[in-house]
Design goal:
The complex is a heterodimer.
Chain A (H helix, E strand, L loop, with lengths): L3 E4 L2 E2 L2 E2 L1 H17 L3 E5 L5 H6 L4 E5 L6 H15 L3 E5 L2 H14 L3 E5 L1 E5 L2 E8 L4 E7 L4 E5 L15 E5 L7 E7 L13 E5 L9 H11 L2 E4 L1 H5 L20 E5 L5 H7 L4 E6 L12 E4 L2 H17 L1
Chain B lengths: L2 E4 L2 E3 L7 E2 L3 E2 L6 E3 L1 H17 L3 E7 L4 H10 L3 E6 L7 H13 L5 E5 L10 H9 L3 E10 L3 E8 L2 E8 L2 E5 L11 H8 L3 E5 L7 H4 L4 E7 L8 E4 L3 H14 L5
Classes of the chains: A alpha/beta, B alpha/beta.
The complex binds flavin-adenine dinucleotide and adenosine monophosphate.
Adenosine monophosphate (AMP) binds next to helix 1, strand 6, helix 3, strand 8 and helix 4 of chain B.
């Protein structure tokens, strides 16, 4: 019983960024806890990349596209074989679907959506935002394995420079009571707020749905995702996938630009852990300024187009 | 078609969180509500009942006050209620899941609904854990649902896309915003709800060992408030071009992102 096992996912043949983050922190935990870093994937194509992040072995189950039941069976089998001290999942949709299912099968707990992890006193210690970031809980995960899901963007990606991980094939169960009928990609190509490094968010200050183009144009120029307050989601100006806040996504990008968002407590809860916050609001008393690192008091209809132009110029250099 | 809706009773999203002894949230003066995602779960179950008949049993594990959440859920259209009494705040997600799974076994059901996450715990763990304990298929983060003969069809939200999935019944569904528009309780509903008796149980009544339920596998060693942000620099944006320049400089120099 030792080491760290990380559940990884591929997109277009490459490890997802969130998976690379989980591998990077997983390697540090393995160094502290003793034992190897190993990974699980459903495609041997991940072997070289996983190795670069320090994984010695890659357990591969040919279980096809993600589905809860076959993945639970395959991953629990690997846990039984490897007996890791720690099992990590990146907090993607699939990671969050799978972690609790595997944990319940193994009769252990999960620290969910953690933004700090360390191995201390022979235990996995994690920090997790609760009440959407209004408080932070530090928890000890006592099960074997100790399971955690990592918050996207909270851990740096760091290569370790190892050779390709040794591929170990494991059998994949095929029992499944859930069938994929169709995959809908309504916003193909659009960056999602969960994983974006930069988010440009718009609120009711945009006045009407068509004015979301001001926010989209800037997001496009800067290479970021489009976020929104609940007020504009409820008004139907934009889909709820974009909602940031206590009943939307909790995000922590490098840069968060809020335009025409007042900064209600439920909105702040979803974005105040962003690393650099820029707010544009015409009301100098707007609560968003309390969390902004750079606040601009002014008219978004003037400032956003000017900013989009400046960004394009900066990018052209 | 019978359903069970698992409802957690959580501090209002407006609440300012204060911390009490024992690494817990100070509950004095806090207003508690039905967890927002559980409202979508409840609404979907009520619509299912209105379409195909059957019962909607609302279920909670929690202290005395959690009964208010059940009363509210009955007032909106739940037909039966079960309250498992206990300090749910002392249990971790797996402990809570074990209680709910045992309770669900005693209630007729085809679909079991959860919120995609409890607002406050922000875990998103209990639904899939119950699915595993009961051996049921699960569909998480659902934005559209149709329940038919022996199976359901659900849209599951994933990063930038949606899967359309078919699952055999009985199954677990966790509700995402967008699934429906929850109704408010009417005066008539509130009056009707008062006539419904809440089935109250203890952990022991469910044949469970309280020590196992309250044994924390995830132990909170400290609970802290984030460092108060004082707000950074504020500039006048009357000159849009100058403001834009200042923002770009900030993104370049501080965030190193351009
Ligand atoms: C249970 C519950 C859950 C909630 N969950 C969420 C959530 O997850 N996310 C969320 O965002 N909200 C949430 N809310 C709603 C929240 O309370 C606020 O109502 C909402 O965030 C307000 O959105 P807004 O900032 O876009 O609108 P407003 O509060 O109306 O603010 C608009 C802002 O735009 C500014 N403005 C107007 N014109 C201009 C201009 N020309 N230039 C610059 N600035 C301008 C105004 O000064 C104002 O500050 C929740 C509420 C409840 C009760
Ligand atoms: N004590 C509880 N009683 C009833 N249902 C609960 C309880 N705790 C959590 N749930 C359900 O599980 C969902 C997910 O909660 P969580 O895993 O805490 O984020 C909630 O939206 C509820 O549907």
């Amino acid at each position: 019983m030792a080491g760290v096992l990380v559940f990884t996912e591929l997109k277009d043949g490459k490890l997802k960024k969130a998976s690379r983050e989980a591998l990077s922190i997983g390697r540090k935990l393995a160094e502290a806890a003793g034992g190897d870093l190993v990974a699980f994937a459903t495609d041997a194509a991940a072997a070289e990349e996983a190795g670069r992040y320090g994984a010695k072995k890659l357990y591969v189950a040919a279980a096809g596209d993600y589905s809860t039941e076959p993945y639970t069976a395959a991953l629990t089998q690997v846990v039984k074989d490897v007996q890791p001290s720690v099992l990590l999942f990146a907090g993607t949709s699939n990671g969050r679907d799978l972690a609790p299912r595997v944990a319940a099968r193994l009769n252990v707990g999960v620290a969910s959506d953690v933004d700090r992890l360390e191995w201390t006193d022979g235990k996995l210690r994690a920090r997790r935002p609760v009440y959407s970031g209004k408080a932070f809980a530090t928890v000890d995960v006592t099960g074997t394995p100790a399971i955690a899901t990592t918050r996207p963007n909270a851990f740096p990606v760091e290569e370790a420079g190892g050779g390709a991980a040794e591929v170990v094939n494991v059998s994949a169960a095929t029992d499944n009571r859930v069938k994929l009928v169709e995959m809908k990609t309504p916003e193909a190509g659009e960056l999602t707020i969960a994983e974006a490094d930069i988010i440009v968010a718009g609120g009711r200050g945009l006045k009407e749905a068509t004015n979301f183009s001001y926010v989209r144009d800037l997001a496009h120029a800067i290479g970021g995702a489009v976020g929104a307050s609940r007020a504009v989601v409820d008004a139907g100006w934009i889909d709820h996938q974009h909602q940031v806040g206590q009943t939307g996504r909790v995000v922590s990008p490098n840069v968060y630009i809020a335009a025409g968002v007042s900064g209600a407590i439920q909105h702040l809860a979803g974005m105040s852990s962003s690393k650099h916050i820029i707010a544009i609001n015409k009301d100098p008393e707007a609560p968003i300024f309390r969390v902004a690192d750079l606040g601009v008091v002014g008219d978004l209809f003037q400032i956003l187009p000017a900013l989009t132009e400046e960004v394009k110029k900066a990018k052209a250099h | 078609m019978n359903s069970v809706v698992c409802i957690s009773h959580v501090p209002d999203t407006e609440s300012r969180i204060k911390i009490a002894a024992g690494n817990k949230v100070d509950e004095t003066g806090l207003k508690f509500i039905v967890s927002p995602y559980d409202e979508f779960a409840l609404e979907e179950a009520i619509r299912l009942k209105e379409k195909s008949g059957g019962d909607v049993t609302v279920l909670t594990f929690g202290p005395e006050r959690a009964q208010q959440a059940l009363r509210e859920a009955l007032a909106r259209g739940g037909t039966k209620a079960m309250h498992v009494k206990g300090e749910s705040a002392d249990a971790d997600s797996l402990g809570i899941a074990k209680v709910l799974a045992a309770a669900i076994k005693s209630i007729p059901h085809d679909v079991v609904f959860f919120g995609k996450q409890g607002v406050g715990t922000d875990n998103g763990l209990v639904g899939p854990m119950v699915a595993e304990l009961l051996g049921y298929p699960q569909v998480n983060v659902v934005t559209h649902l149709e329940v038919g003969d022996g199976k359901l069809t659900a849209h599951r939200e994933i990063e930038g896309a949606e899967e359309v999935l078919e699952a055999a019944l009985p199954a677990i569904v966790t509700a995402q915003k967008g699934l429906n528009e929850p109704r408010y309780s009417s005066l008539k509903g509130i009056m009707a709800a008062k006539k419904i008796a809440i089935d109250t149980k203890s952990i022991a009544d469910l044949g469970l060992d309280e020590n196992d339920i309250l044994k924390q596998r995830v132990v909170v060693v400290s609970l802290e408030l984030p460092a108060e942000k004082t707000g950074g620099k504020k500039i006048d944006g009357a000159d849009a071009a100058a403001a834009a320049q200042a923002i770009v400089n900030y993104i370049k120099n501080e965030a190193k992102a351009l």
